Amino acid sequence: MVRRTKEDALATRDSIMDAAEQLFIERGVSGTSLQHIASAAGVTRGAIYWHFEDKGALFNAMMERATMPLEAAMQTLDAAAGKDPLGHLRSYALCVFDLTINDPKARRVFEIATLKLEYVGELSAIRERRLQHREFFLASAERIVKEGIAHGRLKDTVKPKAAALGLFILIEGLVRGWLIMPDFNLEQLGAEIVDTHLDSLRA
């Protein structure tokens, strides 16, 4: 019976996040209330508060559920880049493009976080989460570039901070542009654009 109760609680939690995800796409985050989400999920507002402290906590849980593969890929940047620092960075970029194209849940969450969100009120904490993600990527990419320079694989004139930030802006900009208007091949053109940036660093 206890197992059944836990399963029911997890199912309710997932249904709340499913409803929130759909409403955030349709109405935007600020235009969606917890009552809207409760009605769409077929639960009470109390049920939502049992699972989530507020809308910001609900949004963060939804993000975590959809971006776990992306965050797992991010962790690989913590590993030593070895003999192929640029290949290491390229693999991460292609993972982002692949998730955006082929994982519908991740794509919806990326769209919400990129196009449907205002960092105000109870959602201001989400901005901190995105900044932490950005800073982790920049620190990892900068370290990888420095290692590449030290081992003679990248030009010694390369500025590691600029190279890392440039790659981050390329990835984020390509995903955002494709979500707004998917009129180009994100996987193919994205890889070509990333390769152009990375090849300019190569010794």
Distinctive features:
single chain, 203 residues, mainly alpha, 9 helices, elongated, TetR family transcriptional regulator, Tscrpt_reg_MAATS_C
Q: Show unreliable segments.
A: none
**Percentage of residues assigned to helices:** over 70%
What class would the helix/strand composition place it in? mainly alpha
Rg over CA atoms, rounded to whole Å, is 20 Å
- Strand-residue fraction? under 5%
Please give the alpha-carbon distance between the first and last residues: 63 Å
Count the DSSP helices. 9
Order of helical and strand elements: HHHHHHHHH
DSSP strand tally: 0
Shape category = elongated
Give the mean pLDDT.
87
Largest sheet: none
Account of the 3D structure:
This protein has 203 residues and is an all-alpha fold. 76% of the residues lie in helices and 0% in strands. The protein has 9 helices and no strands. Helix 4 runs parallel beside helix 7 and helix 8 (160-180) runs antiparallel to helix 9. The longest helix is centred in the C-terminal third of the chain and has 27 residues, at 124-150. It is elongated. The chain starts with a helix and ends with a helix.
Could you write a compact summary of the structure shown?
Pfam families: TetR_C_2 (PF08361), TetR_N (PF00440). The protein is an all-alpha fold and 203 residues long.
Outline the fold blueprint.
Layout: H1 2-27, H2 34-41, H3 45-51, H4 55-76, H5 85-102, H6 104-115, H7 124-150, H8 160-180, H9 186-199
Helix pairs in contact: 1-2, 1-4, 1-6, 4-5, 4-6, 4-7, 5-6, 5-7, 5-9, 6-8, 7-8, 8-9
